[in-house]
Design a protein that fits this description.
Layout lengths: L1 H31 L4 H6 L11 H9 L2 H33 L3 H12 L6 H10 L6 H24 L4 H9 L4 H12 L1 H17 L2 H6 L8 H7 L8 H31 L6
Helix pairs in contact: 3-13, 4-7, 4-10, 5-7, 7-10, 8-9, 10-13, 12-13
Length: about 270
């Protein structure tokens, strides 16, 4: 009994050390965002004298983060809405109605082919359609590169829906569309939440795709704005870390509120029965 307690205490000690090691970069970024370069270089790990939000104000106004934030929010919101709706429809048809090996294999290609291999054909297609300098163009690209991953997460959740529910709905006279929206979607909510968070995380932090497609300052994303905070001959670490905090906060909030659904979505389908 004593040996078991010692082992348990040792495990908790190791986990606590790992937790602090992983937490340190986040703490350093947040701490540095309230300081200027002089304070950072003279006492790198020291605490700020006061909560000075000057770096955040400079990043938001002078660094044009206000416009970048709006651009990123609109693009990611449109991508999320369109991609999740169509991916859930495709997953429902493939998992519950018409199990097509061809469709399943075709969508698997979206996971096998690296995203950035498609940069040149995507650029050519958008130029042909005159969509290179538009939110619609970058939104379509985000949907294309995230559709397959969203499909397979939701597809796995669709397989866990009991057939008896659909049969009961059909007996009551419900159409396929009504069954999909009122019965199936609420049941696969964890899968939808997981797909949504992963899509938001990927699209929100994407850098190379908007860099190659959007060059207009009024349409740039937050990831591009962060890169522009670097100076030519030096770096303002306080300003840079303030920009990082502004960029990271939305994803942290989304994950915090949807955490319980994400865990359920990841484990759904792991045990069948």
């Amino acid at each position: 009994m004593h040996k078991a307690k010692v082992c348990k205490a040792a495990i908790y000690f190791v986990l606590s050390i790992l937790f602090l090691v992983n937490l340190f970069p986040f703490w350093w970024v947040l701490n540095t965002s309230f300081r200027d370069n002089t304070a950072v270089f003279t006492n790198t790990l020291g605490l700020p004298d006061s909560l000075n939000f000057e770096n955040y104000i400079k990043a938001w106004d002078i660094g044009n983060f206000r416009q970048y934030f709006v651009n990123t929010f609109i693009t990611v919101a449109l991508t999320l809405l369109i991609c999740i709706i169509f991916a859930s429809m495709a997953a429902y048809v493939s998992a519950r109605i018409w199990k097509s090996v061809f469709l399943y294999g075709f969508l698997s290609l979206g996971l096998m082919v690296p995203t950035h291999v498609l940069l040149i054909p995507e650029k050519v297609i958008l130029q042909t359609l005159n969509l290179t300098q538009s939110r619609l163009g970058i939104t379509l690209v985000y949907i294309a590169v995230n559709f397959s991953f969203s499909f397979f997460i939701i597809y796995t959740s669709m397989l866990t829906v009991p057939k008896e529910l659909e049969e009961a709905a059909a007996i009551d006279g419900a159409s396929r569309v009504r069954t999909f929206f009122t019965i199936v979607l609420p049941i696969v909510k964890p899968g939808l939440a997981t797909a949504s968070v992963m899509l938001c995380y990927t699209a929100w932090n994407e850098y190379l795709l908007p860099l190659c497609i959007v060059t207009n300052n009024n349409l740039k994303m937050l990831s591009q704005g962060l890169n522009e905070l670097k100076g030519q001959y030096g770096m303002d670490y306080g300003l840079m870390t303030a920009g990082i905090v502004i960029t990271v906060i939305p994803i942290v909030l989304i994950y915090t509120f949807l955490q319980k659904y994400i865990v359920a979505g990841v484990t759904s389908g792991a045990v069948k029965g």
